[in-house]
Amino acid sequence: MEVTCLTFNPFQENTYLLHDETNECVVVDPGCYERGEQEQLKKYIEEKGLQVVRLLNTHCHIDHVLGNKFVADTYNVGLEIHPEDEQTLRAVPAYAPVYGFPMYAEQLPASFLREGDTVKFGNTELQVLFTPGHAPGHVVFYNGPEKICIGGDVLFQGSIGRTDLPGGDFDTLITSIREKMFALPDDVTVYPGHGPETTIGYEKKYNPFLR
C-alpha cells in the first residue's frame, strides 16, 4: 500500500490517498477547500491513474471534511464515518463561515464504520479501530501486514490531539492511545492529521503526554 500525503487549508491538514498495485484508491480526510487544492488532488489521482473507490473520515472536524463533497461528487463515492461523529459533521455548516469557509458544502454519510470493521480496496485491508477523545466518533485505519496506521488527530509526533472542542475528553483520548494505539507494534508508522509521521515506539518513549 502506498501512502500519499497532500496538505491543505489554513489548518495544514493532511489528506491521505491510499492505493496499491491494483490502482484502487481510498481518500481519507479530504481537506481541500479552495479550487486550486481540489485541482491538485484531482491532478494527482489522474496522473497516477487511480480509481477512487472509497471516501473515509477519521473524524469530522471542519479541517478534515472540507473536501468531502468534492470527492464524493467527482468520484461518485459515499462518505463513511463512525456513527458517533455524525453530530460533529452536522455541526460544521453552522460554524464554517466563522472559520473563514463560507462556501463549505455539506456531505452527509452514506454508511458507517465501526470498531472491528474491515475497509477493503484492491488487495488491501484496513482495520477500523475506535479511538475517541479528540472527537466522539474518531477512528483510525490500521494496515497490519504493512505496519501503517492512518491516525487522524489522536497521536502526533511529540503531542496528542486537542480535547477542548465539543465532544473532546482528555482522559478518553489518553485511554484510546494507551489501549488502542500503543497496543500496535513499536515499528508501526503513524500518519497523523497534521505534521510529520511518527512511530508507535518513538511516541511510547518520547511523547511527554504519555510517559
Automatic annotation (TrEMBL):
Domain spans labelled Metallo-beta-lactamase: 12-194
Domain of life: Bacteria
Keyword DNA-binding included in the entry's annotation: no
Keywords carried by this UniProt record: Hydrolase, Metal-binding, Zinc
Cofactor(s) listed: Zn(2+)
InterPro entries: MBL_Glyoxalase_II, Metallo-B-lactamas, RibonucZ/Hydroxyglut_hydro
MF annotations from Gene Ontology: hydrolase activity; metal ion binding
PANTHER family reported for this sequence: HYDROXYACYLGLUTATHIONE HYDROLASE GLOC
Protein name: MBL fold hydrolase
Origin species: Pontibacter actiniarum
Organism lineage: Bacteria, Pseudomonadati, Bacteroidota, Cytophagia, Cytophagales
